[in-house]
Amino acid sequence: KSHFIICRNFLFLAESESLEGLYQKARYFMAVIFIFALIMMIKERVYLKEVGSQNFCLNEKIFYLKTHKTASSSLLNLFARIAEERKLRVALPAQKEDYNFWPFNVNEGNMDKRNYPPDMHILHSVLYPRRNFLLFPKENTFYVTILRNTTTQWPSVFEYFHVGHINGRQLSMEKYLQLKMNSTTDSQGFNGLSRNPNFSDFGYAITDLLTEKSIKESILKLEKIFNLVMISELWEESLIL
What we know:
Blueprint: H1 2-16, H2 19-51, E1 61-65, H3 72-86, E2 120-121, H4 129-135, E3 141-147, H5 150-160, E4 165-166, E5 169-170, H6 173-180, H7 190-195, H8 197-201, H9 212-225, E6 228-231, H10 235-240
Parallel strand pairs: 1-2, 1-3, 3-6
Antiparallel strand pairs: 4-5
């Protein structure tokens, strides 16, 4: 119906105006579109110049903190292709049998010297800003990571790492939660992932997050480190950013 109305209106204009008049209006309309597109391009160039280190393309280095069970492997594949295309040096573990740095941080002592100094970090590791900034200075590095809604992330961690395997038997998630709800187990190894996967990858122990104040302060510190925090549930939107 709407298409019919548009066609009817166009035919009415054609009957009431000469073809030359319609042609002039069409030229005016195209000129307006061209000017609008030109303004948007100029604004985008100005924006990219102003954001500086906040823009992914304008940085010398990239630090991607790969997190557990957050669709982080999909993002790793994208960064790996960028590294291959641009011939960038990626931080790799010194030991051939290791395929990531976790549960340790990446530093000069545990990385393959053939890729030193690194241009990118894209593997699993534990965030430790003091050491990370030595290899990837904040002023010329784009820091990015990805998080996931813990409501769906935790069951995935539980199943993937067999977290409920205790004393030779596998507990259900419900029984495991009842057993561990009041536990103060240290956050090393998989225990940290079983309590709070996101904060564990960011280098926080369970004892660091005992109060609401400490949790908020930790989040504020992380906001100052990362230029972009992607969200798994908002995958397309995060890629656009």
